[in-house]
């Protein structure tokens, strides 16, 4: 035990906490400390999360979370103590000594292994039902109608859940000797009035893979207009929908190579893009885009291109997603595919090359948001102006980028034919109200195009704008 404790101490000493936490969230240096928007209760307008590399310790003044490198990785990645230690040992390139796990750690690890095993088995079961049985023909007909080849079906291990209320339950309990309670824990069955029944019935099945290529959950889609259209596995010890993305395992090699991810809304959007050669596409898991998903992408990509539906709901979802993704330091752009077209429809009509060309032409996120707000509200009215400015300030301040905010104020003043000083005053009021400390210049803004021309001119303009003393 003493040797293991010594290893833990050495492990902490060998890890620069700022570098480790900085791989999850953007940090800004403040004296001996680093500050960030808290990863445990953010995003927030005023950074409250402090990191001390010297002490190997972090603390949030907002939610009071605190700890060291091990507790940080435990909480961020939803790991046990030993799992976090192993991951950090790999991170620090250190050989880990043996250590006896506690009874609770053993119980949790055993349950995770059992769930992983039964979920993997269910993936193979649904896939076999689709590809090798008569009852799977309805599923194959649906996928054929959606233009999916057998190659794509195999790549994503798509499946079909039989219509019978107890088909999976009977097969797994009698043939595989798997207990009903474990099937309930895995989200495959439910128990009511003393009777077990299958959760997924008569649905096309979309396995959800983790980063290691293991199936951890499922999404099931009906083949008619019944509700709910999609049914997703509940969260479990091996599945947290806020921390994972659909198709992330299949997309990861291209995301790493391109340093770019394409974010879509639905499973079929992601699969159709992959089928047409756009292999860095991922989708959220039946929820709005989350801060945890943004941090996951930030580990592998510099840029996220959002390709949501462009109806009103899609635009609102895009705005929320941009605010979240911007807060972790990702570069953001938005794809325009034309009125009413989602990625699945577009790529099946025009092909993968046309879609990739649309990605090349994707608009910077702030420009997209501003232009969509100009269409949504009447910028000639006082009410419309306030709505546009409030929405823009909300997203601009969330990024913590003072330069971008101050430059964009000038752009908004021109487009809306408003007094620039008035917009700056409104920005200050909004920032104070929302407790943001992003610097807002009250002098002449600095335009990047001008600063690129002449270093002397750049310094002079920065002095005039108050960015330098």
Question: What does this protein look like?
Answer:
- The protein has 469 residues and is α+β, with helices and mostly antiparallel strands.
- The protein has helices spanning 2-14, 17-22, 69-77, 81-91, 103-132, 137-145, 150-156, 167-175, 180-185, 248-258, 267-275, 291-298, 312-327, 343-350, 352-360, 365-376, 382-399, 402-416, 420-433, 448-451, 455-465; strands spanning 28-30, 33-36, 49-52, 57-60, 66-67, 159-161, 189-192, 195-198, 203-209, 215-221, 230-232, 260-264, 281-283, 303-306, 331-334, 363-364.
- It folds into four domains: 2-91, Zinc finger, CHC2-typedomain (DNA Primase, Chain A), CATH 3.90.580.10; 104-232, DNA primase, catalytic core, N-terminal domain (DNA primase DNAg catalytic core, N-terminal domain, Alpha-Beta Complex), CATH 3.90.980.10; 248-369, Dna Topoisomerase Vi A Subunit, Chain: A, domain 2 (3-Layer(aba) Sandwich); 383-465, no CATH class.
- The protein is built from 21 helices and 16 strands.
- The chain has a five-stranded antiparallel sheet with strand order 1-2-3-4-5. It has a five-stranded mixed sheet with strand order 13-12-14-15-16.
- α13 (312-327) runs antiparallel to α16 (365-376), α13 runs parallel beside α17 (382-399) and α16 (365-376) runs antiparallel to α17.
- It starts with a helix and ends with a helix.
- The model is unreliable at 444-451 (pLDDT under 50).
């Amino acid at each position: 035990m003493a040797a293991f404790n010594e290893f833990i101490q050495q492990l902490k000493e060998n890890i620069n906490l700022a570098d480790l936490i900085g791989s999850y969230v953007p940090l800004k240096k403040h004296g001996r400390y680093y500050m960030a928007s808290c990863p445990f209760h953010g995003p927030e307008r005023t950074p409250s999360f402090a990191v001390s590399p010297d002490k190997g310790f972090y603390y949030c003044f907002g939610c009071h979370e605190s700890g060291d490198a091990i507790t940080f990785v435990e909480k961020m990645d939803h790991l046990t103590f030993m799992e976090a230690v192993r991951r950090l040992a790999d991170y620090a390139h250190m050989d880990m000594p043996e250590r006896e796990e506690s009874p609770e750690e053993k119980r949790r690890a055993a349950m995770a292994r059992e769930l992983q095993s039964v979920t993997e088995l269910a993936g193979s079961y649904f896939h076999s039902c689709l590809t090798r049985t008569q009852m799977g023909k309805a599923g194959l007909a649906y996928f054929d109608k959606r233009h999916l080849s057998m190659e794509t079906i195999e790549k994503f291990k798509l499946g079909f859940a039989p219509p019978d209320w107890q088909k999976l339950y009977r097969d797994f309990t009698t043939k595989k000797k798997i207990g009903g309670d474990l099937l309930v824990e895995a989200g495959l069955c439910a128990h009511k009035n003393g009777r077990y029944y299958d959760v997924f019935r008569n649905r096309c099945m979309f396995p959800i893979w983790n980063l290691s290529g293991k199936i951890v959950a499922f999404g099931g889609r009906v083949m008619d207009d019944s509700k709910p259209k999609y049914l997703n596995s509940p969260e479990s010890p091996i599945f947290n929908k806020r921390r994972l993305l659909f198709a992330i395992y299949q997309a990861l090699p291209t995301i790493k190579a391109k340093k770019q991810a394409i974010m879509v809304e639905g499973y079929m959007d992601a699969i159709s893009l992959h089928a047409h050669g756009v292999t860095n596409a991922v989708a959220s898991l039946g929820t709005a885009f989350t801060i945890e998903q943004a941090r996951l992408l930030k580990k592998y990509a510099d840029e996220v291109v959002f390709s949501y539906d462009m109806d009103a709901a899609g635009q609102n979802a895009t705005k929320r997603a941009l605010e979240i993704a911007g807060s972790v330091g990702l570069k953001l752009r938005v794809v325009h595919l034309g009125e009413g077209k989602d990625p699945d429809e577009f790529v099946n009509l025009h092909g993968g090359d046309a879609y990739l060309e649309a990605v090349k032409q994707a608009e910077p996120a702030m420009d997209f948001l501003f232009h969509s707000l100009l269409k949504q509200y009447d910028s000639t009215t006082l009410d419309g102006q306030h709505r546009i400015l409030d929405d823009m300030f909300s997203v601009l301040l969330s990024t913590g980028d003072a330069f971008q905010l101050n430059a964009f104020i000038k752009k908004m003043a021109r487009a809306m034919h408003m007094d620039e000083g008035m917009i700056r005053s409104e920005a200050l009021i909004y920032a104070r109200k929302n407790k943001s400390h992003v610097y807002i210049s009250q002098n002449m803004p600095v335009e990047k195009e001008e600063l690129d021309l002449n270093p002397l001119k750049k310094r002079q303009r920065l002095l005039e704008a108050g960015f330098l003393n």
